[in-house]
Please model this.
Amino acid sequence: MPMNRNVILLCWFVNALALASCVSSKKMHWPTELTQKGSTYYQQAAGYNWKQRDSLTKVIVLQGGLPEFLRRFVPVQATWRDTATGNKIKLTYYVAPDYLSVGGDEDWARVHITPFLAQELADSLHCFLPTRKMVDQIYQQAKIKLSPVPLYAFRDSTPTFYHHHLIVEGQRKSRKGLIAGIQKDIVTSGKLFTYPKMDRVAIYGWHQLNGKPIQPLYTGHVYWYVDYSQGVRLIYENVRVNGKWLHYSELFSNEKLKNLLCDEPTCGTGRYPVKNF
Model:
């Protein structure tokens, strides 16, 4: 028997809502066992060096001590034209609305870690780290763009990390949405593989309100150098290419599709060359 027209319209409406929900956000189902406060984290880590901070952060993140808002990833959309065929390829990937943070929605704080821990956490949370090209795209589509606030003393001290977080929160004024311009991103790059020990961190970004980044792509710091301005933006590991879901590694291993995510002559693998240092 033919379906009633109203039933057909209702089914279409429900499917449209479901599709819109999938497109507008991606909920990350991370662990939630740990209740943590951002202020408590920084009280505990006040005198820590980079190794101690990494160890503490790893435990908290893997046990689920992250704010709820950070779990709802938002889409970033881009297109790329294949010069060989002239075909336009559409890309959508899902990004954390803010940089890696610990705590709950009422008391949370951004944290700063080495790139090797960032890679380990990204793997555990079904994510990957951005490239230079992606950082630019995220900035362009961010809802909240804030002016960078450089600090000059004790740049790698834990109290400075928290101080900078509080400055950014003063700028943000409780506005919600995809935020950018507040950190240099820890990025992946083909340049990481040009060093014999492969022991560097790649950073890029910290865009000014004119859209120009303060920090060009730079790999001069050894991996354990961490300061208040280096943040970790997580990207969901699966991306949509012309409507089809692909794992990010499939793009980096494809000579054509890697251009969707990377604008360097050599893109690398989309990962850090993690070693046991």
Remarks:
- The longest strand covers residues 72-81.
- The chain has one domain: 29-260.
- Confidence is low (pLDDT under 50) at residues 5-22.
- Residues 29-260 form one domain.
